[in-house]
Amino acid sequence: MNVKVYSTPTCPYCKLVKEYLTEKKLAFTDIDVAANPQAANEMVKLSGQMGVPVIDIDGQVIVGWNKGALEEALGMKQKA
């Protein structure tokens, strides 16, 4: 599984996403779009959004802190 988190150092929701992934012992690549304009452009092309966090899980894009969507994309959510 390939997980990328497009984030900035000052974003509280980015911190929540990264803490969640770390807690679940899932490897991810943290991409600081504040320090990398090329990555910021890549993030906008991928998501159509300027805001962070943007999470790319094997091509499935999630914008913002959305625990339910993360669990679903990671295959952790139980089916009702």
TrEMBL record:
InterPro entries: GLR_AS, GlrX_YruB, Glutaredoxin, Grx-like_ET, Thioredoxin-like_sf
Record SUPFAM superfamilies: Thioredoxin-like
Gene3D superfamilies: Glutaredoxin (3.40.30.10)
Any one Pfam family match given in the protein's UniProt record, by short name: Glutaredoxin
Coiled coil: none
GO biological process, one term: cell redox homeostasis
Glutaredoxin domain residues: 3-62
Superkingdom of this protein's organism: Bacteria
One function term, GO molecular function aspect: electron transfer activity
Protein name from the UniProt record: NrdH-redoxin
Lineage of origin: Bacteria, Candidatus Uhriibacteriota
